Amino acid sequence: MSDKIADLAARRARKRDAKPRKCPICGKPAVEATRPFCSERCRKIDLDRWRAETYRVPVVEADDDDAPKPESAEDAD
Ligand SMILES: [Zn+2]
Questions:
Q1: DSSP state of 26
Q2: Residue 64: which pLDDT band, with cuts at 50, 70 and 90?
Q3: Ligand 1 centroid to 72 CA: how many Å?
Q4: DSSP 8-state code for residue 51
Q5: Ligand 1 centroid to 23 CA: how many Å?
Q6: I need a surface site. Which of 38, 44, 59, 69 has the fewest CB within 10 A?
Q7: Which residues are CB-contacts of 75 (< 8 A; sequence separation ≥ 6)?
Q8: Ligand 1 centroid distance, CA of 43 (Å)
């Protein structure tokens, strides 16, 4: 009788032991919605890094030369 309870407890423990993935950006446990990251913020950080790796040369869209371009401060790098 107690075996069943023990089995149940073991199963629960096993489930709990399934380690949550750690966010590769900040090391916090990842959440379901933004796996494998802990938050949308870290997901974006990773995406930006990935983009920076992929597109080393910044793509400049210069269709409208006369139009003032909105300068992003983060493009400085
Ligand atoms: Zn994170």
A1: T
A2: low
A3: 24
A4: H
A5: 5
A6: 59
A7: 58
A8: 7
Q: Which residue has the tokens 């983009």?
A: 51
CA–CA separation, 59 and 64 (whole Å):
15
What is the 46 CA–ligand 1 centroid distance (Å)? 9
Query: What is the distance between the alpha carbons of residues 50 and 44, in angstroms, rounded to a whole number?
Result: 10
35 neighbors 44 (Cβ within 8 angstroms): no
Helix locations, 1-77, DSSP H: 2-17, 40-54
**Residue 42 token pair:** 């870290």
pLDDT digits (tens, 9 = 90+) for 1-37: 678 888 888 787 766 556 668 999 999 999 999 999 9
Ligand 1 centroid to Cα of residue 49, in Å, is 14
pLDDT at 8: 83
The model carries a pTM of 0.46
